[in-house]
Specification:
The structure holds two protein chains of two kinds.
Chain A (H helix, E strand, L loop, with lengths): L17 H24 L18 H32 L1 H16 L2 H15 L3 H30 L3 H9 L4 H36 E4 L2 E4 L3 H10 L3 H30 L16 H8 L1 H19 L8 H9 L2 H28 L2 H37 L2 H16 L6 H11 L3 H4 L2 H5 L2 H13 L3 H9 L4 H35 L1 E4 L2 E4 L3 H11 L2 H34 L3
Antiparallel strand pairs in A: 1-2, 3-4
Helix pairs in contact in A: 1-3, 1-4, 1-13, 1-23, 2-3, 2-5, 2-9, 3-5, 4-5, 5-7, 7-8, 7-9, 7-15, 8-9, 9-10, 14-19, 14-21, 14-23, 15-19, 19-21, 21-22, 21-23, 22-23
Chain B lengths: L5 E11 L5 E12 L4 E5 L6 H8 L7 E6 L2 E2 L7 E4 L11 H11 L4 H14 L15 H13 L5 E5 L7 H16 L7 E6 L2 H7 L2 E5 L6 E6 L11 H25 L12 H12 L6 E3 H7 L4 H13 L3 E4 L2 E4 L1 H8 L2 H15 L1 H12 L4 E3 H9 L4 H18 L3 E3 L4 E3 L5
Parallel strand pairs in B: 3-8, 3-9, 6-7, 7-8
Antiparallel strand pairs in B: 1-2, 1-4, 4-5, 9-10, 11-13, 12-13, 14-16, 15-16
Helix pairs in contact in B: 2-3, 2-4, 3-4, 6-7, 7-10, 8-11, 11-12, 12-13, 12-15, 14-15
The chains are: A mainly alpha, B alpha/beta.
């Protein structure tokens, strides 16, 4: 499996380019605008009627269905976003310069932090209240799914083999046909892998987005997430158990009904032409393929689809126009003008926002808190690496074990940290432990698995010959790790660790504050700061917290992960 | 006879260079393709012949000059010009049938016609029974047959072939060539003219009616050879051999001049030839039956080297003054003979002497290293220097070649981790 790094590791030597600074400004500006707008909208929503939620497990199937639907809709929107945004970025050089840095920064913004802002914003936008809340939840889930999918799609579009592009052009495929026959199939395996990651990751946000309190406003949508929140608030251990069971079932259904068929179906889009391992199979896909009923039902659509391929949607013969457009004309001027105007508006928003609600002391405080969270992330990643790299190598070099462990790791990656609050909080209180230390493991609970399954993939990819050489020269013990195993998995490890590190920052917002009924523990850190400001409904400080956290994430990526990734890629990439 | 199918006039192609200058790839290209002709574009790597094919296909806009196809200027991929690719360029997610149908679907033809024409093309090219196979299930030869069927099914007037047989093994390539020539000779192909790009001299003589020889850096047409032999042609026919020899002479005459003159300056593009290959060819030359002098076509055949590789080795040997290439022959020099007779250590000494004397870039790097107090210099220093004179790829390639030679000669060392050159070897 070709693994794409979840951050941009492209060829810039400098820490930030002009375009990246602009991207940061635009995102901060948008946040400031949303927060400002939301603050004024907060009041009329205060009397939102709470829908009674029941902890009776009989309601769980309905809740699960609603949660599933939300995640599916969000996935649909994410795909739409991916196909448009990434395509624009890959095909239009002017747009690419802004869109790619924008995506890179967006990936670093802690989503959990701005859920509060978007929830209030969307609820005020929609006329019906429940609909508004639904929009907000779907939007939150969307933001947790879309960025890495778009990024992977963009990377794939950039790497479509030159000869396929030439073949497509010389046979004069229309842009529409080229997109569906060349671009999408080529990107498909990688995109599906990222969809699976996104789906896993978004469980975390389901819990956070279905039940949220901002200031005096409380939004509760019926779903598994709000069920969990209520179970924790009411200290109902049995209900927590039911919720875990339900999640397990839903994840299994997703796997069997959605992803396994997709993976099996996408196997033919693998570009490596040699027949590799056994092709993945799926009983659902087999049923769909063999069923006459399905065939009859889908026939009209497939005929229409085929016809759309042949239709002349656009003028082709666009060969040189593209080149001409890049060099001059009005388009770049207009685009640059628009970008400058947007940047100015964003700057104005940020300045206005910053000068009203936050003092310099606040900024200093958040930076110090950021350092506290940073040290936690560093220690946690180090500890997790020490545990999971050896385990991953052990599992990866044994195909049977790998087949067993992979799905388990994927399930665990979907496991929201909130579900462990009961145990952790009770334990900390009972044993009188230091919350600053013992709440931290919750941060990495969901994200450490990315390290594990990337290392497994890396170890599985060590060529049999290299392992045979090791055995032949009786390279064993520490020497084997130092000379064979660790170098071979390093590029994979770094890829996993980048995801884990980014995710841990995000999780800090949930994990640095944990509650179980009335008992509430808080660790010192930026995550707790953002959570506290959210509860207080202080939008200025929420935005400040998010901005500082994003800055930390971006800086760590730029100064540490990116160079490490390049080094590993250059020196240790096999084949 | 009607007007030319294709008329290329004073074509010139440049690519932008890193320092803002321009790199000239093709210059003053002028030729016509008549109905019923197969024209071969023959040249070494870097002669721009593949670029020329892409210009004709409308995939690239030319920097200057015109390409006229049936009286119309080519400004985009034209209907009626189809291409067969070296690497097949099949879509792995489409079956054989779907791959073949692709070009017809793009023409927005009715479904029934698409199917009927695709099946006919599959039948013609000998792919019956493979319709539902995916490319990854096929052998290289079968894949390229799909490539041919896909190009022929759109009934192009001109078929462009970009080294279509070079990715195949010798036997498969020969079968495909023969099958193609049979179909072409019998007039069964729905095409009116063919342009074949190749670096295989025998292939060009075997297939083409006219051969255009290209020089390298920049690509210019240096000579045009008409092949009047009747099809099917026999490789062992003396006339065939004469033509092959003649082309070798024409191509080496060029090589000799360029290798000598160019090697005098620091910015010469160095051929990517390992010291092992150099020793290997020198030893072969020195031994029986050549005794220091060999006919290039013969040695190419015997050592099963591609012409391209052989010329590259010849360039390297000439640069280092270890051998001379002239009139289709290659001959050991005095130093070349000494090299062959010497043991490992002495060979390295001879190689170092030749390298520092005749490859200015090597001498330049060593001098800089000696001048510096710590005897260390970053790679980027030399890379930037080279990039002012050649493309980024060539600069990278040239530095790699000089590094490989210097390592063998123990002239200087290179550390890839720190990307630095130094005078010290690890002790």
């Amino acid at each position: 499996m070709r693994v794409i790094v979840p951050i941009s590791v492209g060829g810039w030597a400098r820490l930030f380019t002009r375009w990246e600074l602009l991207a940061i400004l635009l995102i901060l500006g948008l946040l400031a605008f949303l927060a400002e707008a939301s603050r004024h909208l907060l009041q009329p929503l205060a009397e939102l009627q709470q829908q009674p939620l029941s902890l009776d497990p009989a309601y769980l199937p309905e809740y699960a269905a609603r949660t599933t639907l939300r995640m599916l809709i969000a996935m649909g929107v994410s795909l739409l976003f991916t196909f448009t945004y990434a395509t624009l970025a890959a095909k239009n050089k002017q747009a690419e310069r802004l869109l790619v840095p924008l995506l890179d920064i967006l990936q670093s913004v802690p989503i959990l932090g701005f859920i509060s802002i978007t929830v209030v914003f969307f609820m005020a936008l929609a006329p019906g209240r429940v609909l508004g809340a639904e929009f907000a939840a779907i939007f939150a889930i969307f933001t947790s799914q879309a960025w890495n999918m778009a990024f992977s799609f963009y990377q794939s579009l950039r790497t479509v083999p030159a000869e396929l592009v030439e073949a497509s052009r010389s046979f004069r495929l229309s842009p529409w046909m080229n997109f569906w026959r060349v671009d999408v199939p080529f990107a498909m395996p990688q995109l599906i892998w990222n969809m699976m990651m996104s789906m896993s990751g978004s469980w975390f946000f389901v819990v956070a987005s279905e039940a949220i309190s901002v200031g005096n406003t409380t939004v509760t949508l019926p779903g598994v997430g709000s069920y969990i929140a209520l179970a924790i608030a009411q200290r109902d251990l049995a209900a927590v158990g039911y919720a875990i069971g339900t999640m397990l079932v839903v994840i299994l259904i997703y796997d069997q009904v959605l992803f396994r068929p997709l993976v099996a179906w996408a196997d033919r889009f693998r570009f490596e032409q040699e027949a590799g391992d056994l092709p993945p199979r799926s009983w659902v896909l087999d049923v769909l393929r063999r069923s006459r009923l399905v065939d009859r039902l889908t026939r009209p659509f497939s005929v229409l689809w085929a016809r759309s391929m042949r239709a002349r949607w656009f003028d082709r013969g666009e060969a040189y126009k593209q080149a001409a457009r890049d060099e001059g004309g009005w388009a770049p001027l207009i685009l640059n003008g628009a970008v400058i105007a947007l940047g100015a508006v964003a700057l104005w928003q940020v300045v206005r926002f910053a000068t009203t609600g936050v003092s310099l002391a606040d900024v200093g405080t958040t930076f110090l808190l950021g350092l506290a969270t940073l040290s936690r992330v560093v220690v946690l990643i180090a500890v997790a690496s020490c545990i999971w790299v050896p385990v991953g190598v052990w599992v990866g070099t044994r195909p049977r074990a790998a087949n067993l462990v992979q799905p388990v790791a994927q399930f665990l990656a979907a496991f929201p940290a909130n579900l462990l609050f009961p145990i952790v909080v009770s334990a900390i209180v009972a044993l009188k432990l230091n919350a600053d230390i013992w709440l931290s493991p919750l941060m990495i609970l969901g994200t450490q698995w990315y390290i594990l399954f990337n290392v497994i993939a890396g170890a599985a990819a060590i060529p049999a010959e290299l392992r045979a050489v090791g055995a032949n020269f009786r390279v064993r013990g520490w020497l084997w790790w130092r000379r064979i195993a660790l170098p071979a998995v390093l590029p994979y490890y770094v890829t996993g660790a980048i995801t884990a590190s980014g995710g841990s920052w995000n999780a800090a917002i949930v994990a640095e504050v944990a509650s179980w009924g009335d008992e509430k523990l808080e660790a010192i850190g930026l995550g707790a700061y953002i959570a506290r400001q959210t509860e207080a409904g202080d939008f200025h400080r929420i935005v400040l917290g998010i901005a500082v956290m994003s800055l930390f994430v971006v800086l760590v990526n730029r100064t540490f992960w990116r160079p490490l990734y390049r080094y590993a890629e250059r020196k240790f990439r096999l084949g | 006879m009607s007007a030319a199918l294709l008329d290329i006039h004073d074509l010139r192609q440049t690519f932008p260079r890193a320092d803002g200058g321009e790199l000239l790839v093709l210059d003053g290209i002028d030729f016509k393709l008549a109905q019923g002709q197969m024209v071969g574009l023959l040249g070494r790597t870097g002669s721009g012949k593949s670029t020329l094919l892409r210009l004709i296909a409308g995939l690239l806009p030319p920097s200057a000059g015109t390409i006229t196809y049936l009286g119309q200027k080519v400004v985009a991929p034209a209907p009626g010009i189809a291409m067969v690719f070296q690497s097949f360029a099949l879509f792995p997610w489409l079956t054989v049938l779907e791959n073949v149908q692709l070009g017809l679907e793009a023409l927005a033809l009715p479904e029934a016609e698409i199917r009927q024409r695709a099946l006919a093309a599959i039948d013609l090219i000998g792919l019956d029974g493979y319709e539902s196979a995916y490319p990854r299930e096929l052998s290289g030869g079968m894949r390229q047959r799909v490539g041919f069927a896909r190009a022929l099914v759109v009934h192009p007037n001109i078929l462009l072939m970009d080294e279509p047989f070079s990715a195949l093994d010798v036997l498969t390539a020969e079968t495909l060539r023969t099958d193609f020539l049979d179909l072409w000779g019998d007039g069964k192909l729905p095409i009116k003219g063919v342009i074949l790009v190749t670096h295989n001299i025998e292939e060009a003589v075997l297939m083409c009616d006219r051969i255009l020889l290209f020089s390298t850096n920049p690509g210019r047409i240096i000579s045009e050879i008409a092949v009047d032999l009747k099809q099917p042609r026999n490789r062992l026919d003396p006339q065939f051999r004469d033509l092959v020899e003649k082309i070798y002479v024409a191509m080496t005459a060029r090589t000799q001049r360029s290798a000598r003159t160019v090697a005098m300056s620091i910015d010469a593009i160095l051929p990517r030839v390992s010291a092992n290959t150099i020793s290997g060819l020198l030893e072969t030359l020195a031994g029986e039956p050549y005794k220091g002098k060999a006919d290039l076509p013969v040695i190419a055949d015997e050592s099963s080297l591609e012409v391209d590789e052989l010329f590259a080795i010849g360039d390297a040997l000439q640069m280092l003054h270890l051998a001379e290439v002239e009139g289709g022959d290659i001959r050991l020099t005095e130093i070349g003979k000494q090299f062959v007779e010497a043991g490992t250590d002495d060979r390295k000494k001879i190689f170092q002497r030749q390298l520092l004397a005749y490859v200015p870039l090597a001498a330049h790097i060593r001098r800089i290293l000696q001048e510096r107090a710590n005897h260390v210099a970053p790679k980027s220093r030399f890379f930037d220097e080279l990039e002012d004179h050649m493309s980024t790829d060539d600069a990278e390639e040239t530095l790699r070649s000089v590094t490989a030679w210097a390592r063998y000669a123990e002239a200087f060392a290179y550390d890839d981790d720190s990307q630095t050159f130094s005078l010290e070897n690890p002790t």
